[in-house]
């Protein structure tokens, strides 16, 4: 969990220090061109001698301009694929208005042309939250996950669901989409079924273990049913 420290800074530090073992961390937005979306953290706690406390709270810089450019570029994608953004159907219109509440403009400052993000609407919390979630995902190592790890994660989260980004099936009469034919269903089941024990029952232990990362991998796949 990434927590913005721009407001009630000390309270945020205290909260993140308390829950650091659960990977709750404080962030600070950095609106500078070329900043990485998630930079190196800086220790904030010091002792009476002014020395940094090694196990104290850490502040993680977030390159907000870089993140916004990435998010807006992905919003431009119209076909599902790498980088395409998926949203729940139940989100209200004001969520998307907040997500697109800023635009990039060029300004001439003392003879130098700079790019600056400005608000076109008052409420931009969805965009801020999208950036913090993006930073938290990077922290968790999502960008380093392989296709095989994504498939294993999908099996642990919901082995009956064909795709992480496809909604659950609904009963007929409740707006359900047309069911796939039997051949397609069998093909999907054959490729996505969880490991089976000799007695034919799903081996829950194996299903969990395959989702655990190898040494050096992210901990994003450490999920149990």
Query: How many β-strands, per DSSP?
Result: 6
Structural class, by secondary structure, is alpha/beta
Oligomer: single chain
* Low-pLDDT ranges: 174-216
Indicate the mean pLDDT.
Answer: 78
Shape: globular
- Portion in strands: 5-15%
Number of helices: 7
Strand order of the largest sheet: 1-2-4-3
Written overview of the protein:
By secondary structure, the chain is α/β, with parallel strands linked by helices. It has 2 domains: 2-140, no CATH class; 146-209, no CATH class. 32% of the residues lie in helices and 14% in strands. The chain has 7 helices and 6 strands. It has helices at residues 9-18, 64-75, 93-99, 125-140, 147-157, 182-192, 204-209, and strands spanning 2-4, 25-29, 42-43, 58-62, 102-109, 112-119. The strands form 2 sheets. It has a 4-stranded mixed beta sheet, sandwiched between helices. It has a two-stranded antiparallel ribbon with strand order 5-6. Strand 5 and strand 6 form a beta hairpin. Helix 2 packs across helix 4 and helix 3 (93-99) crosses helix 4. It is globular. The relative contact order is 0.10. The model is unreliable at 174-216 (pLDDT under 50).
């Amino acid at each position: 969990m990434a927590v913005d420290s721009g407001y009630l800074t000390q309270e945020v530090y205290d909260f993140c220090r308390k829950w650091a073992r659960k990977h709750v961390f404080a962030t600070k937005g950095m609106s500078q061109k070329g900043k990485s979306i998630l930079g190196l953290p800086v220790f904030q706690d010091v002792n009476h001698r002014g020395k940094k406390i090694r196990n104290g709270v850490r502040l993680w810089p977030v390159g907000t301009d870089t993140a916004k450019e990435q998010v807006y570029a992905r919003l431009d994608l119209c076909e599902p694929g790498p980088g395409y953004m998926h949203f729940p159907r139940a989100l209200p219109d004001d969520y998307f208005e907040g997500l697109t509440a800023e635009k990039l403009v060029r300004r001439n400052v003392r003879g130098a042309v700079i790019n600056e993000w400005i608000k076109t609407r008052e409420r931009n919390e969805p965009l801020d939250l999208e950036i913090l979630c993006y930073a938290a995902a990077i922290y968790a190592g999502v960008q380093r996950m392989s296709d095989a790890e994504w498939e294993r994660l999908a099996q642990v989260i919901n082995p009956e669901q064909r795709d992480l980004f496809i909604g659950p099936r609904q009963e007929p009469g409740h707006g359900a989409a047309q069911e796939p034919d039997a051949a397609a269903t069998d093909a999907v089941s054959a490729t996505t079924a969880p490991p089976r024990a000799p007695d034919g029952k799903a081996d829950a232990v194996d299903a969990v273990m395959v989702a655990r990362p190898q040494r050096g991998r992210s901990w994003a796949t450490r999920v149990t049913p």
